[in-house]
């Protein structure tokens, strides 16, 4: 938490280091304390909380939540207000310090809107995507990107103004495309479990690369970078515990290794049957996986355990041959952003523990960089 008030000159100097273009018009001239960052009335909830965090490099990043977007140019030591209003952010996707997109809701019970900024987030323009209700986005440049709903995948070549549906297999529950031709689909197979399929022709043809038997099939997530493919398959959930399996491929899906096989009393057996390298994921016991980062050859998975009240990460630096769950810290829920295999940030997205942490040793230790004050209305 930033406790001391800073003189205007120090604020101006900090903003010049990469955030000059996004300095908000509403910024208080003489203060960047946490109390100032989170003053006013939160959007859509009783208190401010984080929903996403994204760092572009080792110094410049943003964190967003219900009615706010803040930024840092010194790795999280100080933060500046960028946006405050009614948008309730669910995902940030910036390709540069000025150009980015976000998914955000205008009401807590509403659907995501796609919004775009050219000034670093100070102002956003809504892009009409109706009837699409996008749940995820990923832009590769200022024009080309991909959007996903629960069951379908789409692509755009004009910055999100129009979208073209990509053919995916029936019962697709999570797709991930690296370019217009190459993509993956996680498929629910009723009565069996899951199938993971790959396309190299933009969705015209799909080939099965992995099948995973599961008593419960509620979905999963996919992460790709180069020849690395990582796939999460969810089992059941109950008693605040999540059963899941994590598989890794180092050769673009030709062969697979089961890395995590987490069986829980509340969620039942892990998908896939066979044992993994480890019996639990990060933030045990019964931890829920959050997002994964593939960077510098490392795979880093965030996690949180409601039962234990902790958050943390697990990682592999050898494509899943070995896996280490690192010591967690107290927290509620989490999302991570890493710019190298050692340097990363983790946001606690819960209402009661809202904070941003930084690691310089790959998640072995964490230092708190910012907390949302209690009773911040």
SS-derived structural category = mainly beta
Question: Total number of β-strand segments?
Answer: 27
Number of helices: 2
Shape: globular
Level of helix content? under 10%
**Oligomeric organization of the protein chains:** single chain
Euclidean distance between termini CA atoms: 17 Å
Strand order of the largest sheet: 1-2-3-4-5-6
The main pleated sheet reads as:
6 strands, antiparallel
Q: What report would you give on this structure?
A:
This protein is mainly β and 377 residues long. Helix content is 3%, strand content 45%. The chain contains two helices and 27 strands. The strands form six sheets. Strands 1-2-3-4-5-6 form a six-stranded antiparallel β-sheet, covered by helices on one side. A hairpin with a 5-residue loop joins strand 24 (334-338) and strand 25. The radius of gyration is 20 Å and the shape is globular. Residues 1-31 have low confidence and may be disordered.
Compose a concise summary of this entry.
This protein has 377 residues and is mainly beta.
Secondary-structure map:
Blueprint: H1 8-16, H2 34-37, E1 50-55, E2 61-72, E3 80-94, E4 100-105, E5 113-117, E6 125-127, E7 136-139, E8 145-148, E9 153-156, E10 164-166, E11 172-177, E12 183-189, E13 193-199, E14 207-213, E15 220-225, E16 228-238, E17 241-249, E18 257-262, E19 288-295, E20 298-305, E21 310-316, E22 324-325, E23 329-330, E24 334-338, E25 344-348, E26 355-359, E27 367-371
Antiparallel strand pairs: 1-2, 2-3, 3-4, 4-5, 5-6, 7-8, 8-9, 9-10, 11-12, 12-13, 13-14, 15-16, 16-17, 17-18, 19-20, 20-21, 21-22, 21-23, 24-25, 25-26, 26-27
């Amino acid at each position: 938490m930033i406790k001391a008030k800073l003189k205007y000159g120090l604020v101006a100097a900090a903003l010049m280091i990469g955030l000059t273009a996004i300095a908000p018009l509403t910024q208080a001239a003489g203060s960047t304390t946490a109390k100032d960052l989170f003053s006013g009335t939160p959007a859509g909830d009783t208190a401010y909380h984080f929903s996403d965090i994204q760092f572009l490099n080792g110094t410049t990043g943003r964190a967003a939540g219900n009615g706010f977007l803040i930024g840092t140019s010194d790795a999280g030591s100080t933060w500046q207000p960028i946006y405050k209003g009614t948008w309730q952010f669910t995902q940030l996707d910036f390709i540069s310090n000025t150009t980015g997109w976000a998914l955000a809701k205008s009401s807590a019970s509403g659907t995501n809107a796609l919004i775009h900024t050219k000034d670093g987030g100070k102002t956003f323009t809504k892009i009409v995507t109706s009837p699409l209700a996008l749940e995820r986005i990923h832009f590769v440049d200022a024009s080309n990107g991909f959007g996903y709903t629960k069951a379908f995948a789409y692509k755009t070549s004009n910055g999100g103004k129009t979208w073209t549906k990509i053919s995916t297999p029936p019962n697709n529950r999570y797709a991930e495309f690296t370019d217009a031709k190459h993509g993956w689909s996680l498929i629910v197979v009723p009565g069996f479990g899951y199938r993971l399929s790959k396309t190299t022709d933009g969705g015209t043809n799909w080939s099965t690369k992995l099948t995973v038997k599961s008593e419960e099939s509620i979905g999963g997530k996919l992460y790709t970078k180069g020849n690395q493919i990582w796939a999460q398959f969810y089992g059941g959930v109950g008693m605040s515990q999540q059963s899941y399996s994590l598989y890794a491929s180092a050769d673009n899906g030709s062969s697979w290794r089961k890395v995590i096989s987490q069986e829980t009393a509340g969620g039942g057996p892990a998908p896939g049957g066979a044992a993994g390298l480890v019996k639990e994921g990060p933030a045990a016991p019964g931890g829920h996986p959050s997002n994964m980062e593939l960077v510098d050859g490392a795979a880093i998975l965030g996690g949180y355990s409601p039962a234990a009240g902790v958050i943390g990460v697990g990682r592999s630096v050898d494509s899943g041959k070995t896996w280490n769950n690192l010591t967690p810290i107290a927290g509620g829920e989490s999302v991570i952003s890493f710019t190298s295999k050692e340097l990363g940030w983790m946001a606690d997205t819960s209402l009661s523990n809202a904070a941003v942490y930084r690691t310089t040793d790959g998640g072995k230790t964490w230092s708190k960089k910012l907390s949302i004050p209690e009773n911040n209305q």
